[in-house]
Amino acid sequence: xxxxxxxxxxxxxxxxxxxxxxxxxxxxxxxxxxxxxxxxxxxxxxxxxxxxxxxxxxxxxxxxxxxxxxxxxxxxxxxxxxxxxxxxxxxxxxxxxxxxxxxxx
Length: 105
Description:
Elements: E1 5-6, H1 19-23, E2 28-31, E3 35-37, H2 44-48, E4 61-65, E5 68-73, H3 75-83, E6 88-95, E7 103-104
Parallel strand pairs: 1-3, 3-5, 4-6
Antiparallel strand pairs: 2-6, 4-5, 6-7
């Protein structure tokens, strides 16, 4: 199994981070088998495109909430890492508490 679970939707509360705020979070290693996806469908054009990260962040966005790591953005990058037989990837991880303001970590 590549991911811990294939989900469909974001169960965590809205965090409201902008692309600029995501970019301030330093990337760190995350195991693919600890991630729960928030999308159940992948567009093969995105997966196979050579310039798929040209207009976006180079690192996937992961939300840590209630002990789980949710892959919010970057499913195609995570799957590409798995196809290259890597078990970890570098991602920006945002910790969202049950209540209160998210913390960058």
